[in-house]
């Protein structure tokens, strides 16, 4: 028994020893794993370039380790470029973005306002982010694209402090959906002292649903991240050592709130409480900024940032709008300078000889530059009624005697002009508001008058409701109503010489044809006459045999085509079956030519002159511009006072300009292909031209439109068959038919004779 018990005791002791050794191994392995995880966690918070290369940067590399060195050198190269190739040392902009927005939103910033930053700009994204367009990108290690981007935002500030704190005075944290007026931003920052702790942006305390839930003291706030946050060098220096603490002590899911809390705690400042920060850092609380909803002139005159612009197209469209607005301001400045020059020249009191050829354009354009303040011309200056420049009355509607519709809605461009002029008037009144201790605020526009003088400019008489506010001394606010008289002067005419290098460019004329034998004969005679003067033309005819056309007319048409070919006229011919479809005909005609050929789509009802093709060559630029000439269309001779149907003249009695006709166009074949060509599903006449025009509107190709007196539409009876046309085509057909009846004056005389 003793021996058996001894064996059992020895076995038990041996088992416990083995178990103890295994347990120690497990504890050691577990401790190693926990230590490794804690190490990586601490390294991600203490983000520096050296530690990035040693630990956290390894997470960016591939398994073979070769990609790590490449990315490290790329990161070092980016940092070096920012330090040595900045436009100035004023500002560094850090844009927070994500992988899915790098080649859209971030790219649009890089194309628009990014290159004009008075300093430099970097994009910050997740560790695995890559750009196909070579953006200046910092892929932050251990950072993903999760939202809210609290870690990304704080580590971006840490990175900027570690590498650029001594190279720039100001640091701007921006989102990838904000537009920045960099010129105004530079003026704003240069007026401030970067050596003082400053934390600038639109102040926020949270919306009403979040009130009391953000753990903010009553006197605390934060700078809203959307419109952008600006820190001085002094602020970022004080903040940077405490970023690790702030990341560990987050009290909300809003990264801008937490940045504000961190700045308040360790720098002891809040976001600027100044009321005008709401307009300087503009955030559209009603949603994305859209050009369909006009931006108030007050915002455009003060804002530095505009937020939000959620898509690449929105950013590009707003940039184009901003450049237009800037161009308008420059033109006004130029006009004012010329006005000053003209006034100074009058003060110099030169004699007539000294006003010779050298200064002709100033002395003779003085009145044009200054504008006419004689609102009502003297009666003796008028020869007849048409010489009187009448005023247009504007309130909720527009009343004018120069339009067929005397009462109509106020056009968009007139609304924009009124808004801009009212903003300029208020701005000029408030120019010395700080010195005088008062300012005037625009409240409402009651009514006004507008007159366009082709030589002087646009004249306005505006009835305005204003609020006069005095804030120095005894404060008062008084509503006032005033008349404002304004003249919007034309800018100086500018000319530039364009070398003509396309004089011998071949223009390929494409004509769709179905029936219409007599108009076709007239068109061919017209073309042969022009071809004798301009041999750099070719003709392509796409024929649709008409079921209603006699066999003789069809054979006669083909005989004319054969005769042209035998005469050596450069001609191409194609024939399509089925009912006439202008879209299919023109698309087939374009396929007869090479992609780099210049095409001109026209109809047999047009009368052409040789100067037309020089306009086509000059105004059509491959890859950049298409030419849509505005055609002069003849009225129906039955309703016109003209005695001859075949007389071709351009005046208000003979016809009208087809402002909304898009059927005649010159373009390069490659540009037609780039936008997708014609919609061949459209049958019959009409709508195919509008469809193609819209495609060019949505493309990067510029559309050039201008009246061309060398292109005249000869009147013919218009037949609108609702059985062969769609509803929209039928309505367009009727509109053209009725518009071509005659002038308002002739129709009035005819109706008066019949009624009386």
TrEMBL record:
Membrane topology of this protein: Single-pass type II membrane protein
Record's keyword terms, sorted: Glycoprotein, Golgi apparatus, Membrane, Signal-anchor, Transferase, Transmembrane, Transmembrane helix
Record's keyword annotation contains Transmembrane: yes
Main location: Golgi
Enzyme Commission no: 2.4.1.-
Cellular compartment(s): Golgi apparatus, Golgi stack membrane
Top enzyme class: transferase
Membrane recorded as keyword: yes
Pfam families: CHGN
GO CC terms in record: Golgi cisterna membrane
Membrane-spanning residues: 20-38
Superkingdom of the organism of origin: Eukaryota
UniProt-recorded Gene Ontology molecular function terms: glucuronosyl-N-acetylgalactosaminyl-proteoglycan 4-beta-N-acetylgalactosaminyltransferase activity
Family under the similarity heading: Belongs to the chondroitin N-acetylgalactosaminyltransferase family.
Name listed for the protein in its UniProt record: Hexosyltransferase
Taxonomic classification: Eukaryota, Metazoa, Ecdysozoa, Arthropoda, Chelicerata
């Amino acid at each position: 028994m003793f021996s058996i018990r001894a064996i059992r005791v020895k076995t038990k002791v041996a088992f416990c020893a083995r178990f103890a050794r295994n347990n120690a191994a497990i504890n050691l392995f577990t401790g190693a794993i926990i230590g490794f995880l804690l190490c990586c966690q601490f390294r991600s918070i203490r983000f520096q370039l050296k530690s990035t290369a040693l630990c956290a940067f390894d997470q960016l590399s591939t398994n073979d380790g070769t990609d790590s060195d490449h990315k490290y050198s790329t990161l070092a190269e980016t940092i070096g470029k920012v330090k040595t190739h900045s436009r100035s040392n004023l500002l560094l902009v850090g844009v927070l973005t994500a992988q899915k927005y790098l080649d859209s939103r971030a790219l649009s910033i890089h194309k628009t306002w990014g290159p004009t930053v008075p300093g430099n700009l970097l994009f910050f994204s997740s560790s695995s982010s890559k750009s196909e367009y070579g953006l200046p990108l910092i892929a932050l290690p251990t950072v993903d694209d999760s939202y809210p981007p609290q870690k990304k935002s704080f580590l971006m500030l840490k990175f900027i402090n570690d590498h650029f704190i001594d190279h720039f005075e100001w640091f701007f944290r921006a989102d990838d959906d904000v537009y920045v007026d960099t010129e105004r931003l530079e003026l704003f920052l240069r007026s401030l002292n970067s050596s003082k702790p400053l934390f600038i942006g639109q102040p926020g305390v949270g919306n009403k649903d979040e009130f009391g839930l953000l753990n903010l003291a009553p006197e605390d706030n934060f700078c809203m991240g959307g419109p952008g946050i600006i820190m001085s060098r002094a602020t970022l220096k004080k903040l940077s050592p405490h970023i690790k603490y702030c990341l560990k002590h987050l009290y909300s899911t809003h990264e801008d709130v937490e940045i504000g809390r961190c700045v308040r705690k360790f720098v002891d400042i809040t976001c600027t409480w100044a009321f005008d920060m709401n307009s300087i850092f503009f955030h559209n609380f009603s949603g994305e900024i859209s050009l369909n909803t006009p931006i108030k002139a007050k915002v455009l005159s003060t804002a530095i940032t505009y937020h939000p612009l959620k898509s690449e197209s929105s950013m590009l469209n707003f940039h184009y709008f901003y450049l237009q607005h800037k161009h308008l301001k420059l033109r006004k400045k130029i006009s004012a300078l010329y006005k000053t020059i003209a006034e100074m020249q009058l003060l110099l009191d030169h004699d007539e000889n000294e006003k010779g050829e050298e200064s002709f354009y100033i002395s003779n354009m003085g009145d044009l530059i200054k504008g006419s303040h004689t609102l009502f011309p003297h009666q003796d200056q008028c020869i007849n009624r048409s010489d009187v420049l009448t005023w247009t009355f504007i309130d909720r509607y527009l009343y004018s005697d120069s339009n067929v519709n005397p009462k109509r809605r106020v056009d968009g461009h007139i609304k924009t002009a009124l808004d801009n002029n009212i903003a300029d008037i208020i701005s000029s009144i408030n120019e010395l508001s700080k010195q005088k201790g008062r300012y005037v605020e625009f409240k409402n526009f009651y009514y006004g008058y507008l007159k366009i003088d082709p030589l002087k400019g646009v004249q306005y008489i505006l009835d305005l409701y204003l609020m006069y506010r005095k804030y120095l001394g005894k404060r008062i606010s008084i509503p006032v109503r005033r008349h404002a008289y304004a003249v919007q002067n034309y800018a100086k005419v500018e000319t530039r010489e364009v070398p003509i290098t396309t004089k011998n460019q071949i223009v390929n004329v494409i004509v769709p044809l179905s029936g219409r034998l007599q108009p076709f004969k007239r068109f061919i005679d017209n073309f042969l006459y022009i071809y004798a003067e301009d041999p750099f033309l070719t003709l392509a005819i796409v024929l649709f045999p008409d079921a209603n056309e006699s066999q003789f007319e069809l054979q006669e048409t083909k005989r004319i085509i054969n005769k042209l070919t035998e005469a050596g006229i450069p001609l191409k011919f194609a024939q399509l079956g089925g009912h006439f479809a202008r879209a299919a005909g023109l698309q087939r005609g374009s396929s007869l030519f090479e992609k780099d050929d210049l095409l001109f789509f026209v109809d047999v009802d047009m009368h052409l002159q040789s100067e037309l093709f020089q306009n086509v060559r000059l105004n059509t630029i491959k890859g950049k511009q298409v030419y849509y000439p505005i055609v002069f269309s003849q009225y129906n001779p039955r309703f016109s006072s003209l005695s001859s149907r075949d007389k071709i003249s351009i005046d208000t009695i003979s016809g009208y300009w087809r402002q909304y006709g898009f059927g005649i166009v010159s373009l390069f074949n490659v540009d037609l292909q780039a936008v997708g060509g014609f919609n061949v599903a459209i049958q019959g006449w009409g709508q195919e031209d509008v469809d193609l025009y819209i495609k060019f509107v949505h493309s990067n190709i510029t559309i050039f439109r201008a009246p061309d007196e060398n292109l005249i539409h000869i009147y013919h009876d218009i037949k609108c068959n609702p059985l062969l046309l769609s509803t929209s085509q039928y309505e367009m057909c009727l509109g053209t038919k009725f518009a071509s009846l005659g002038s308002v004056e002739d129709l009035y005389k005819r109706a008066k004779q019949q009624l009386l």
